[in-house]
Amino acid sequence: RGEVPKGSAEIFFRKVKFWKEDGEEGEAPPIFVGFYPVPNVDGVNYFHVKVAGLLFVATTRVNLSPSLVLELLQRIARVIKDYLGILNEDSLRKNFVLVYELLDEVIDFGYVQTTSTEVLKSYVFNEPIVIDAARLPSLGPAAIFMQGNKRMPGTAVTKSVVANEPGGRKREEIFVDIIERLSVTFSSSGYILTSEIDGTIQMKSYLTGNPEIRLALNDDLSIGSSGRSLYDYSSSAGSGAVVLDDCNFHESVHLDSFDIDRTLTLVPPDGEFPVMNYRITQAFRPPFRINTLIEEAGSLRAEVIIKVRAEFSSDITANTVVLQMPLPSYTTRVSFELEPGTVGNTTDFKEANRRLEWGLKKASYSLFFTCMQIVGGSEHTLRAKLTFSQEYHGNITREAGPVSMTFTIPMYNASRLQVKYLQIAKKSKAYNPYRWVRYVTQANSYVARI
User: Fold this and answer.
1) N or C end: fewer C-beta atoms under 10 angstroms in the chain?
2) Is residue 49 included in any domain, yes or no?
């Protein structure tokens, strides 16, 4: 509409890339105000979200609800992914015309029309250029779908919802992901201070005709406070009810029998969508325990000891585990000492922002305590010897830490919420579509104080 300057894209890029706050480089917030070309001109509001390594940006001079704009950007990213199958830079370049057509239908003269993949099918006529999934890097065990003994690679859900298989046929299948993001804070003595699970049941359907689906959850599922003790882990250990603090459902979900047998009935729309979002603040067993100790070794030296123990079953493996720990500003050198026989680990000292980084990727079963992954029940230790440029005074722990951790654990969920069965209304006796269910647990904010 001509309300923002043509150079707003360049302004956004420079602000995000070289973002500084209080004189220090950092990550730009999802919402900020830019000025063009000089500070005394009315500012442009920039909104952005990062999805699959790509930035989706909206600009306006009008005072809008931030949550509305951020949700719109997330939905636009989801619609583009539904049409392209794969959301990355290569797919966007090759399908630029299609993406431009989608944006033109989603937003008209600055006003949102629809973000429904199903509705857009009637107005979008360009066909997607399919990106060969075989060229994509392997996602590892976290990207494996399971159904009994069957396994399907994660690239199975990188198909466009509007494109057919070679030969003009469409494979009948449906994918359900139970994704949980954990927020846990440990005290310096290892006790849990806060814990929360943000979960979602995500569905992506490739079923023709949109048949009715029945999805059953745990019989012992309850919503609301259970009055359990803060350190009662019974529900995550295999007994006790699954207690949700609150939850919400997609508009297509019917709850007629939910209070009776915890069954959701829905007619899935085209594309990917969240069937249910839920939140849990009741006690649960954290997948990792982190213990950190700092020992002084003279006026110019100190030693940091970080121990990580996997609390889950030994038949489960965590991927892409990374620990980070800020160090005092006067740290000049760090030497690392790993366990004997350890291979596949990466350690680094970020001198620019004085940060220690420890990467654990996959554990080989042929060697004990080797960490290319973290296997359940195992324990790993890192020792880092710090050298300072000046004598420190007072407590060194005030300037170091906390330790933050990121990870992905496939086929594991801390809440014990499960999909008991997934029924699809049959069109005929021969109709038997594929059903795939995956559980994934990720770190949202996993922090240990020192």
Assistant:
1) N
2) yes
Residues 356 and 416 occupy one common structural domain: no
Answer yes or no: are the C-beta atoms of 310 and 375 closer than 8 Å.
Answer: yes
User: Do 274 and 309 fall into the same domain?
Assistant: no
Domain-embedded: residue 153: no
Residue 304 lies in a domain: yes
Q: Tell whether 271 and 214 lie within a shared domain.
A: yes
The pLDDT mean for the chain works out to 78
pLDDT in tens, 71-91: 999 999 999 998 888 888 888
What are the DSSP calls for 125-170, one per residue?
-PPP----GGGSPP-GGGGEEEETTEEEEGGGG-S-SSPPPTTS--
DSSP reduced 3-state for 69:
helix
Q: Which of 149, 81, 154 is nearest to 319 (CA)?
A: 154
Q: Extract the tokens encoding 338.
A: 């790993």
Map residue 198 onto helix, strand or coil.
strand
Number of structural domains in the chain: 3
pLDDT band at 142 (very low <50, low <70, confident <90, very high): very low
Q: What is the CATH number of the domain that holds 68?
A: 3.30.450.60
Backbone angles phi, psi at 2, to 5 degrees: 80, 15
Kindly report the CATH number assigned to the domain that includes residue 263.
2.60.40.1170
Residues 181 and 106 in one domain: no
Q: How many CB atoms lie within 10 A of CB 120?
A: 21
Find where tokens 């009935």 sit.
265
Query: Looking at residue 81, what DSSP letter applies?
Result: H
Spell out a b/e string for 241-280, using b for 16 or more CB atoms within 10 Å of the CB, else e.
Answer: bbbbeeeebbebbeeeebeeebbbbbebbbbbbbbbebeb
- Per-residue pLDDT for 237 more than 60? no
Contacts made by residues 289-292, CB under 8 angstroms, sequence distance 24+: 289/186, 289/190, 290/186, 290/190, 290/323, 290/403, 290/405, 290/446, 290/448, 291/190, 291/448, 292/188, 292/325, 292/401, 292/403, 292/448, 292/450
Specify if 196 maps to a domain: yes
- 265 and 202 within one domain: yes
* Contact between 404 and 324 (Cβ < 8 Å): yes
DSSP 398: G
Domain carrying residue 36: 8-120
The 10s digit of each residue's pLDDT in 304-315 is 888 888 888 888
β partners of residue 132:
none
